[in-house]
Write a structure and sequence with these properties.
Shape: globular
Order of helices and strands: EHHEHHHEHEEEHHHHH
Number of helices: 11
Length: about 270
């Protein structure tokens, strides 16, 4: 038995930019919602999908914005896309999918929490998202990421291949390298190759020695990297706090509650999306 966890925020964004614009009878823009419904129905037609839930960012804001003013917001998101979030949540529920709607936390936090909560109840948890933040949740081939668009499954070996670090080091990697999508600037002089080389060996930022002469791996530009880390270590550790997904989102459902029992045709019709 597998548990499929859908990053509905990502799917809605993908549908907004990938599907034609459509309005309903009231003039609301619902093209992205229609795209989300189509892609979710394709997922649910797979006989292997027996237990499923989805997460959404009801607001593009979380506790991280209270910690760091530079963190991502919905300020630059198209208003007609933001307006489709509540409709999308209703549509997913009408499709019979449990939806966790995030406001204090982010959708990725709910995915991380659910993966940890239910991994012992199923043979495999599939995180249906290509979001690199979620790579920190991967465990062997028990908890994996799935990029549906590319048809790729990323297990623990895949995380090592893609990033050069263990899943547990992904928050450290993003803290050093930065993550423009989330507003994380990273540390000066540090890039993907240097972060991978050092974190692949030391695993955590605090384990990287201040003095590059004691480093147990050879890295190009070591003196500059070490100087930057000495000057910005506290910032790096703070950014790691931001890039670490929470595993304590309040989720009350049991694994049986996530069993898919089919669409509610009346609820779909009531959405009046045609």
């Amino acid at each position: 038995m597998r548990l499929h966890l859908l990053d509905a925020t990502y799917e809605l964004f993908r549908a907004y930019f990938g599907y034609p614009r459509r309005t309903d009878a009231t003039g609301r823009e619902v093209g992205a919602v229609r795209g989300l419904i189509d892609s979710t129905r394709r997922l649910l037609r797979d006989p292997d999908v027996t237990h499923v839930a989805a997460t959404t960012d009801t607001v593009i804001r979380s506790f991280r914005n209270d910690l760091y003013t530079g963190y991502k917001t919905g300020e630059n998101v198209e208003p007609e896309l933001l307006a489709q979030f509540p409709i999308a949540e209703q549509a997913l529920e009408a499709l019979g999918v449990t939806v966790w709607k995030m406001d204090e936390f982010e959708a990725d936090d709910a995915l991380a929490t659910a993966a940890l909560r239910f991994c012992d109840d199923v043979d495999q948890v599939l995180l249906l998202s290509p979001d690199k933040d979620l790579a920190q949740c991967v465990v062997g081939d028990r908890i994996v990421m799935v990029d549906r668009r590319r048809g790729m499954v990323i297990d623990e070996a895949g995380v090592w291949e893609k990033f050069g670090v263990a899943p547990e080091s992904i928050p450290d990697y993003l803290a050093l390298v930065g993550d423009a999508a989330d507003g994380i600037p990273g540390i000066p002089a540090w890039g993907a190759k240097s972060a991978s080389k050092l974190l692949g060996h030391y695993r955590r930022i605090e384990r990287i020695p201040d003095d590059e002469a004691t480093w147990e791996v050879e890295v190009r530009g070591a003196a500059r990297l070490a100087a930057s880390l000495r000057d910005h270590r506290d910032e790096a550790l703070f950014y790691r706090t931001l890039t670490t997904l929470r595993r304590d989102v309040p989720i009350s459902e049991t694994i049986d509650d996530l069993r898919w029992r089919g669409e509610d045709e009346a609820a779909i019709e009531a959405l009046n999306l045609t």
